[in-house]
Specification:
Shape of chain B: elongated
Structural class of chain B: mainly alpha
Number of strands of chain A: 0
Oligomer: heterodimer
Number of domains of chain B: 1
Number of helices of chain A: 5
Strand content of chain B: under 5%
Number of strands of chain B: 0
Distance between the termini of chain A: 58 Å
Helix content of chain B: over 70%
Shape of chain A: flat
Order of helices and strands of chain A: HHHHH
Structural class of chain A: mainly alpha
Largest sheet of chain B: none
Largest interface: A-B, 41 and 42 residues
Radius of gyration of chain A: 20 Å
Number of helices of chain B: 3
Helix content of chain A: over 70%
Order of helices and strands of chain B: HHH
């Protein structure tokens, strides 16, 4: 049961965070970053198995693998941007967080351009 | 797929059959918290004994040590996301 481990780690980390934030607020920021990263690294194996199933399904359905790859890239960009924005918001830097989110949105848009183009091409083919 | 699964297993998951949390995670969190508390106490003690600038130096060194550890962890995190999602 990994969930019990993760919840335990989260609770212990939260208690320590409250302590450390009183003494040294800048250490508390690093502590919360480490907590988030470690929880993600614990989940890696599960994410991997989900990704493998997705890839299997895409191959079996004869999908173009380009689309799946684009979706995975978008998920990765979204995750990293979200992480950075949360850390900045944790440190009371809302403006920096907003900029990071803007960058994430722009990069996702750029990644999605080939799919949009493909859809448009299909529509143009349908039109007489 | 196989290649990076082995990579993660080697780095994190399959050390003596224990998960990441078993060894690395809790240890890291407690280490960072301990450094924070100790540096805070040291800073207060040194500053109270009249050496303000030495106190700031202690706080700075503690921060740099913690930053080194956390940046190591973060590079691992970004690496794993990069390989996982093929960015």
């Amino acid at each position: 049961m990994e969930i019990i481990q993760i919840v335990g780690l989260g609770l212990a980390g939260a208690v320590l965070l409250v302590f450390v934030r009183q003494i040294k607020p800048e250490h508390a920021l690093f502590l919360s970053i480490a907590l988030g990263v470690i929880i993600f690294l614990t989940l890696i194996n599960q994410i991997l198995s989900v990704l493998r199933v997705l890839q299997d399904l895409a191959i079996r359905a004869n999908l173009n693998l380009l689309y799946l790859e684009t979706i995975l890239k978008i998920i990765g960009v979204a995750y990293i941007a979200e992480f950075g924005a949360q850390v900045c918001r944790d440190a009371n830097e809302g403006t920096v967080a907003a900029k990071i989110e803007l960058a994430g949105k722009v990069l996702i848009m750029v990644l999605a351009v080939p799919i949009v183009l493909a859809i448009l091409e299909i529509i143009f083919k349908l039109l007489p | 797929m196989q290649g990076w699964n082995q990579h993660f297993c080697r780095r994190w998951a399959c050390k003596k059959g224990k998960g990441v949390l078993g060894e690395m995670g809790v240890e890291m969190i407690f280490k960072i918290a301990a450094i924070g508390i100790i540096v805070g106490i040291l800073h207060t003690v040194v500053a109270k004994s009249g050496k303000e600038e030495l106190g700031y130096l202690v706080a700075l060194v503690g921060l740099v040590v913690v930053a080194y550890m956390v940046f190591d962890l973060m590079s691992e995190f970004f690496d794993s996301i990069k390989t996982m999602f093929n960015i």
